[in-house]
Amino acid sequence: MPEPAGTPAEVAAESERWSAAGADGFVVMPALVQRTLGRVTKLLLPELRDRGLLAGDAGGGTLRKRLFGTDEPTARRPAGRRE
């Protein structure tokens, strides 16, 4: 899959085309995160929200709390296991 490049509006437009074609998400490759995460969060995410391609604020908190209802790891999950 091609790596989108351009202005935030151009990348959002390409994302919109992919979404219309059936894409249901995107993976940000770790090699790109170091260089571009700040620009993505400050420039691209607002553009995607304006186009209705990204939900608004998820309500804050950690991902663990949003997914599992707690910030504490449990024994069922690897991070909570004490061996």
TrEMBL record:
Keywords recorded for this protein, A-Z: Flavoprotein, FMN, Monooxygenase, Oxidoreductase
Region annotation (Disordered) ranges: 55-83
A molecular-function term among this protein's GO annotations: monooxygenase activity
Gene3D superfamilies assigned to the protein according to its UniProt record, in alphabetical order: Luciferase-like domain (3.20.20.30)
Keyword Transmembrane helix part of the UniProt annotation: no
PANTHER family for this protein: ALKANESULFONATE MONOOXYGENASE-RELATED, C2H2 FINGER DOMAIN TRANSCRIPTION FACTOR (EUROFUNG)-RELATED
Protein name: Luciferase-like monooxygenase
